[in-house]
Design a protein that fits this description.
single chain; D-Maltodextrin-Binding Protein, domain 2; Dipeptide-binding Protein, domain 3; 2 domains; 5-stranded antiparallel beta sheet; 5-stranded mixed beta sheet; 22 strands; 26% helix; 19% strand; disordered N terminus
Length: 570
C-alpha cells in the first residue's frame, strides 16, 4: 500500500459551497474575558512525527498545524462558513473558475520575516510536488488536476480552478502557508522530507498561526507559546491569542486520560469526548463545579470496519470480495446491542458513511441493514458458503474455514468492545473472526503494507461536503481505504461512483448535488466496502476556568479556534 495512506485523516477540509462573489471579514467576536494571559493544559493520544503538515495526515500533525500555521481562508466549524484569514478579501470571476485574493499587509512570520504572495506560491509548489506526494495534494485536485496559482504582486494571489467545482475557494483551507525563506533551499535540493522533522531545532520553525512550538519532549508533551507576530485582533482591538500558551500532554491510554482530567491535571481532551462508562464520574465532577459538560450532538466521524479488497487480498480470501458476504456481515451485527452495551445508550445506529448529524448530505433512502441473522445466512448460502463438516461454522467451496481477522488499536476501549461484539454476532452465523489489537504505530505500518483482512478504526474528517472528500470516494484516491490509488476503477460500481462524484462536484445546483450524492450512497450501501455500525453522541468536558469555549462535534472539539480561548483568573 502507498506510503501516503495513514491511519487518521485530516486531509479532507472545508465545508459547503460558497454563494457570494466577494467576501470581507469583520474582526473576531467580542469577549467578556480580557487578555491577561494564562495557560491551559490539554491532552492528546498521539504526537506528531513531523512539523510540516504537507508531510503528514495524522490527527496530531493536523492539530499542530491548526495551532501554528496560517491559511488564506479558514472554516468556522461552528457556522460552517468560510472566513477570510491571511487573505482579507477576494473576488470571483463570472464563470466561477478564478479567484483574486488580496493579502493582509504587515503580516510577519513568528521569526519576524514578512509574509507575501511568494510564500503562498511556494506552499502551492510543495502541495503539488510529485516527488513529495503530499497527502494534502491529492485532496486539493479537481478531476485529477491541480489549481493554478499566480502572484501579480506581493499582496495579490490568483487561483484558477481547472474545471467547475462547487466548493470553490474552500479548497484553500487545504493550504497551510510555509515560510519560503526557511524551506525553499531544502525543497530545491529535494530534502524537504528531512526538514522540520521531530528533532529539528525549534528555532528553525517559522509560522503564521496564533502559537509557536517552544518545546517537544517525545512521548511526554508539546509546549506552545503565543506568537508575538500573530496578525489577528478581536473586535475591541486586543491582540490574539488571549492565552500565553497551551501545554499538550501525550496520554495514549484513555483510562489515564480520563483520570487526569477528573483530577484537574488537564483542562480538556483534544480529540476525545467522554466515553459512556466515564460519564457518571464526569457528571459528578460537573455537579461539583469542577468541570463543564458540553453536548455537541451526534458525531460526524464514526468508527467503521473496512475490508482489504485489493487484488493481492483476493487470492487469500476471495469470498470477502463478494458483496453478498459483506451485506451478510452487516445484517448479522446487532447495532442496537452495540449502542446499548458499548455506548450505554449514548449513540445511534447508522448504516452508511454519512452520519445523520450531517443533515445536508445524509440520505435516508440509502440501504439499511437491521439485525437479521436469517437474511445474513441466506446471503452467505447464496455466496457458496456452507457448513461442510458439521462444526456449525462455515467453509468455502474448497472446504477452508470462513475466517478473517479484524485489527484495531490497543487502548481504545470503545473500538475493542465493539469488535468483540461483532466477533460474537458473526460467530452466530458461522463466520469465525480473530481479533488483533495493535499499538497505533504498528497498526499504521500494517495498513501501509496491506497485510490485513479488515480493520476497525476511525478517521478525523474535517469536511462535511463530499466533494472535498474525493480521496475517499474516488477509486484513485489516497484514502480509498479498501483499495487505494487504483490507476483505473477496479470494479464497475467504483467507476460509477467516480462518474457520479465528478458530476456532483461540478454541479451548480445544491439539490442536484444532493440527488447525485444520494445515488452514491445507494451504490456504496449495496457494495459495502466499509461497514458502519453506530455514531456516538459527543459530550465534551472542559475545565470551568477556560472561557470562550465553542465546542463542535468534529475534532479538535475545542481547540479549533484556540486563539479565542481565555482563562478566567478569578
Amino acid at each position: 500500500m502507498n506510503r501516503r495512506l495513514k491511519v487518521t485523516l485530516a486531509a479532507v477540509l472545508a465545508l459547503l459551497a460558497i454563494g457570494a462573489l466577494a467576501w470581507c471579514r469583520a474582526d473576531g467576536p467580542r469577549t467578556s474575558v480580557s487578555s491577561d494571559g494564562g495557560r491551559i493544559t490539554a491532552s492528546i493520544r498521539s504526537e506528531p512525527t513531523v512539523y510540516n503538515r504537507y508531510l503528514t495526515n495524522s490527527a496530531a500533525g493536523d492539530l499542530l498545524s491548526r495551532l501554528t500555521d496560517g491559511r488564506l481562508i479558514v472554516l468556522n466549524r461552528s457556522t460552517d462558513e468560510v472566513e477570510p484569514a491571511l487573505a482579507e478579501r477576494w473576488t470571483q470571476s463570472p464563470d466561477g473558475l478564478s479567484y483574486t485574493l488580496s493579502l493582509r499587509r504587515d503580516v510577519r512570520f513568528s521569526d519576524g520575516e514578512p509574509f507575501t504572495s511568494a510564500d503562498v506560491l511556494f506552499s502551492a509548489r510543495v502541495l503539488y510536488d510529485p516527488d513529495l506526494a503530499s497527502p494534502l495534494g491529492a485532496s486539493s485536485m479537481i478531476e485529477g488536476k491541480p489549481l493554478a496559482f499566480g502572484t501579480p504582486d506581493p499582496w495579490t494571489v490568483t487561483v484558477t480552478l481547472p474545471s467547475p467545482f462547487a466548493p470553490g475557494i474552500r479548497l484553500l483551507e487545504n493550504l497551510p502557508i510555509l515560510p519560503r525563506h526557511k524551506l525553499e533551499a531544502a525543497f530545491n535540493e529535494q530534502r524537504l522530507r528531512e526538514a522540520w522533522r521531530v528533532g529539528t531545532p525549534l528555532s528553525e520553525l517559522a509560522v503564521l498561526g496564533p502559537f509557536v512550538l517552544e518545546e517537544h519532549v517525545t512521548g511526554q508533551r508539546l509546549v506552545l507559546t503565543r506568537n508575538p507576530h500573530y496578525w489577528r485582533r478581536d473586535a475591541s482591538g486586543t491582540a490574539l491569542p488571549y492565552l500565553d500558551g497551551i501545554t499538550i500532554l501525550v496520554v495514549p491510554d484513555q483510562n489515564t486520560e480520563a483520570l487526569r482530567q477528573l483530577s484537574g491535571e488537564i483542562d480538556l481532551m483534544v480529540n476525545g469526548d467522554i466515553r459512556p462508562e466515564d460519564y457518571a464520574g464526569f457528571k459528578a465532577a460537573a455537579d461539583q463545579g469542577r468541570l463543564v459538560l458540553h453536548d455537541a450532538g451526534v458525531g460526524t466521524d464514526p468508527n467503521f470496519l473496512w475490508f482489504n479488497l485489493t487484488a493481492a487480498a483476493r487470492d487469500r480470501l476471495p469470498w470477502l470480495h463478494d458483496a453478498r458476504v459483506r451485506q451478510a456481515i452487516s445484517y448479522a451485527v446487532d447495532r442496537q446491542a452495540i449502542v446499548d452495551t458499548v455506548y450505554l445508550g449514548a449513540a445511534v445506529p447508522i448504516h452508511g458513511p454519512v452520519s445523520p448529524a450531517n443533515r445536508t448530505w445524509y440520505s435516508a433512502t440509502a440501504p439499511q441493514y437491521p439485525h437479521d441473522p436469517q437474511k445474513a445466512t441466506a446471503l452467505l448460502t447464496a455466496a457458496g458458503l456452507a457448513d461442510r463438516n458439521g462444526d456449525r461454522m462455515l467453509d468455502d467451496a474448497r472446504g477452508r474455514p470462513v475466517r478473517f481477522s479484524i485489527l484495531t488499536n490497543t487502548g481504545n476501549t470503545l473500538r475493542e468492545r465493539t469488535v468483540s461484539l461483532v466477533q460474537a454476532h458473526l460467530e452466530e452465523v458461522g463466520i469465525a473472526v480473530d481479533l488483533v489489537s495493535l499499538e497505533q504505530r504498528a497498526l499504521g505500518q500494517t495498513i501501509e503494507k496491506g497485510e490485513y483482512d479488515a480493520i476497525y478504526f476511525g478517521t478525523q474528517a474535517s469536511s462535511l461536503d463530499p466533494a472535498l472528500n474525493l480521496a475517499f470516494w474516488s477509486s484513485g484516491g489516497d484514502f480509498h481505504l479498501w483499495n487505494p490509488q487504483q490507476p483505473a476503477p477496479a470494479t464497475p460500481w467504483e467507476a460509477e461512483i467516480d462518474s457520479l462524484m465528478d458530476r456532483q462536484a461540478a454541479a451548480s445546483s445544491q439539490p442536484e448535488r444532493q440527488r447525485l450524492f444520494a445515488e452514491v450512497q445507494r451504490i456504496f450501501g449495496e457494495q459495502l466496502p466499509v461497514i458502519h455500525f453506530v455514531a456516538p453522541r459527543v459530550t465534551i468536558a472542559v475545565s470551568p476556568r477556560v472561557r470562550n469555549v465553542t465546542p463542535v462535534a468534529q475534532p479538535p472539539h475545542v481547540l479549533w479556534n484556540a486563539e479565542m480561548l481565555a482563562v478566567d483568573r478569578k
